[in-house]
């Protein structure tokens, strides 16, 4: 029988909210500080997914300027009722510390492609808000609840609040805590369903790390604290299965197929290790971020849902019996000649949309205007796309004429403002135009070449840059003719661009590694650079003994 292979959405595609409309499934994922907000995919077979335009594509719907890294869009919720799509999303303004200032919004659309209505402000009670449409016509917002008080646990249960359709506002007087979670704590990511006469609450616990899990509770009513937890093991977790290929499964959403089968979309991760590291501590480095997996669900005799194959889930999962073959790209390769006046759907910017202030695209070129450094939270000229394979090459061609070391243009591998590297054309007092590699590691910047920066010959108009990512490490290359590339002898550790490394020093570790193009001019003179193309080519997820690459095809990542 045909099977899907997990993760179905590789690379940073966290916190999936899945819904079916007719014969088509849709998944909405978190985007955090990356713009546009909320990533959407569609499929008819659950195995092959096509990227759709993001709904939050303007600053009316989403204003994130100055947001901290891993702030912004947390766990959007996509549902369908009353002939339209309902999208609830959270814009988080604080990541670290005792507070999580946030606002939850609602927008709707008759078509998944939009247009989406102007946002309705809901509340700021807690993140991971979702909308439940009861079969009696009433609607409720279900959400994690944040408590800043140092003498309370900050995750203060799951709050339910009725939503008034006549006013399109919440009724705060109806708010009540319906579930406290278990002793695992950190209960979040709630989704509510009405099935077989019960209200079923699916919620994440344990934090979005290797202790992550999903639990299920149920109740006959929506009264306060009326939900009982499914007895026995968690619904899904990999905490007790360190050898499993998929890790961190938990937060997600349930869907029923037209023929009555059930599937669950969950976040997951695929950590790797250096050869000299233990396979259990640290459990690994997740450079591709939190991805999306899908597991099949069955119901036991007591009426509780269970993951087929056990609570650890499977890498290969049977497709629905009524699945309709979906045509989708075989890989995530991208070649962009910048002919279109709009950016390809794979490109993202940080916090703000791509506008004339940042640059222009079209007619075979991308112009980026130098603004702040890659550590800037406000004004930054960078476009980037997700790492979606462990082994890939990315390449570009750039024309840049700097007159100051404060001006830089080139190719970057980027996680957040504190963790990135950058091979770039710049200027120094010794050789004029040069090539340098810089790295920001936990906010500490290092120039690798310094006075030995590579001199660019005076007659050179363009410089070609290439990065080769090889799972545990990556490096950069340059060329002056586009044919003969020279490796720069600087080996960079990929783990610096992983969730697991970032969380050791920073409370926002929710995205994943990106590769992209950037221009910096923090002198304020707005020096621009021209990029002629960008090429991203995936090689595979696994290194074979003969030095070639393949896609992972086993149940264990240690095969």
Radius of gyration: 24 Å
Helix content: under 10%
Q: pLDDT below 50 for ≥5 consecutive residues: which ranges?
A: 555-559
| CATH topology grouping of the largest domain | Tachylectin-2, Chain A
* Total strands: 44
User: How many domain modules?
Assistant: 2
CATH class of the largest domain: Mainly Beta
Largest sheet: number of strands, sense, barrel closure: 9 strands, antiparallel
Beta content? 35-45%
Assembly of the depicted chains:
single chain
The termini sit apart by 24 Å
**CATH homologous superfamily of the largest domain?**
Glycosyl hydrolase domain, family 43
Query: What's the number of helices?
Result: 1
- Derived from helix and strand composition plus strand pairing, the structural class reads mainly beta
What does this structure look like?
With 559 residues, this protein is an all-beta fold. The chain is globular and about 75 Å long. The chain folds into 2 domains: 3-318, Tachylectin-2, Chain A; 334-550, Jelly Rolls, CATH 2.60.120.200.
List the helices and strands and how they pair.
Elements: E1 3-5, E2 17-21, E3 24-29, E4 34-35, E5 39-43, E6 50-52, E7 72-81, E8 84-92, E9 102-109, E10 120-123, E11 130-133, E12 139-146, E13 155-164, E14 169-170, E15 176-179, E16 188-195, E17 198-205, E18 213-219, E19 228-229, E20 236-237, E21 252-256, E22 262-268, E23 291-299, E24 305-307, E25 316-318, E26 334-336, E27 349-350, E28 359-362, E29 365-369, E30 381-386, E31 391-399, E32 407-416, E33 419-428, E34 432-441, E35 444-447, E36 454-455, E37 463-470, E38 473-479, E39 486-487, E40 492-493, H1 499-502, E41 514-521, E42 528-540, E43 542-543, E44 549-550
Antiparallel strand pairs: 1-25, 2-3, 3-5, 4-27, 5-6, 7-8, 8-9, 9-10, 11-12, 12-13, 13-14, 13-15, 16-17, 17-18, 18-19, 18-20, 21-22, 22-23, 23-24, 26-42, 28-29, 29-42, 30-41, 31-37, 31-42, 32-33, 32-41, 33-34, 34-35, 34-36, 37-38, 38-39, 38-40, 43-44
């Amino acid at each position: 029988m045909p099977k899907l292979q997990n993760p179905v959405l590789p690379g940073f595609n966290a916190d999936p909210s899945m819904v079916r409309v007719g014969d088509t499934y849709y998944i909405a994922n978190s985007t955090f500080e990356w713009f546009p907000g909320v990533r959407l995919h569609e499929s008819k077979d659950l195995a092959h997914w096509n990227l759709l335009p993001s709904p939050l594509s303007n600053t009316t719907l989403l204003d994130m300027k100055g947001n901290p890294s891993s702030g912004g869009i947390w766990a959007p919720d996509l549902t369908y009722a009353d002939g339209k799509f309902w999208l609830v999303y959270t814009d988080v303004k604080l990541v670290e510390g005792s507070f999580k200032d946030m606002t939850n919004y609602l927008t709707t659309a008759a078509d998944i492609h939009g247009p989406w209505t102007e946002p309705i402000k809901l509340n700021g009670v807690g993140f991971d808000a979702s909308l439940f449409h009861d079969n009696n016509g009433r609607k409720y917002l279900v959400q994690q609840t944040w408590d800043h008080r140092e003498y309370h646990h900050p995750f203060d249960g799951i709050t339910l609040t009725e939503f008034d359709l006549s006013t399109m506002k919440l009724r705060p007087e109806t708010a009540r805590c319906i579930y406290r979670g278990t002793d695992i704590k950190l209960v979040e990511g709630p989704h509510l369903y009405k099935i077989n006469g019960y209200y079923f609450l699916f919620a994440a616990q344990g934090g979005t790390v290797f202790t992550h899990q999903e639990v299920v509770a149920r109740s006959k009513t929506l009264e306060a604290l009326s939900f009982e937890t499914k007895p026995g093991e968690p619904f899904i977790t990999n905490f007790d299965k360190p050898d499993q290929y998929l890790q961190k499964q938990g937060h997600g959403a349930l869907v029923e197929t037209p023929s009555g089968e059930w599937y669950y979309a969950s976040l997951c991760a695929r950590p790797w290790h250096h050869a000299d590291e233990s396979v259990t501590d640290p459990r690994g480095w997740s450079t591709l971020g939190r991805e999306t997996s899908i597991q099949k669900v069955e119901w036991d005799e007591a009426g509780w849902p269970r993951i087929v194959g056990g609570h650890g889930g499977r890498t290969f999962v049977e497709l629905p019996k009524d699945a309709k073959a979906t045509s989708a790209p075989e890989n995530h390769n991208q070649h962009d000649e910048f002919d279109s006046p709009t950016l390809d759907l794979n490109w993202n910017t940080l916090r703000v949309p791509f506008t004339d202030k940042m640059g222009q695209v079209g007619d075979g070129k991308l112009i980026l205007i130098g603004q702040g450094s890659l550590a800037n939270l406000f004004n930054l000229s960078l476009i980037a796309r997700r790492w979606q394979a462990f082994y890939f090459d990315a390449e570009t061609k750039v024309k840049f004429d700097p007159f100051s070391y404060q001006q830089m243009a080139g190719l970057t591998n980027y996680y957040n403002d504190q963790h990135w590297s950058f091979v770039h054309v710049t200027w120094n007092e010794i050789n004029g135009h040069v090539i340098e590699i810089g790295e920001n590691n936990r906010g500490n910047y290092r120039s690798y070449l310094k006075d030995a920066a590579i001199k660019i010959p005076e007659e050179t108009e363009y410089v070609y840059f290439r990065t080769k990512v090889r799972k545990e490490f990556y490096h950069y290359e340059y060329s002056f003719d586009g044919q003969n590339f020279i490796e720069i002898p600087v080996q960079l550790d990929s783990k610096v661009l992983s969730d697991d490394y970032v969380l050791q020093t920073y409370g926002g570790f929710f995205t994943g590694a990106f590769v992209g193009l950037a221009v910096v001019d923090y002198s304020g003179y707005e020096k621009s650079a021209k990029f002629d193309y960008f090429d991203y080519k995936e090689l595979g997820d696994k290194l074979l003994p003969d030095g070639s690459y393949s896609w992972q095809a086993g149940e264990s990542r240690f095969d």
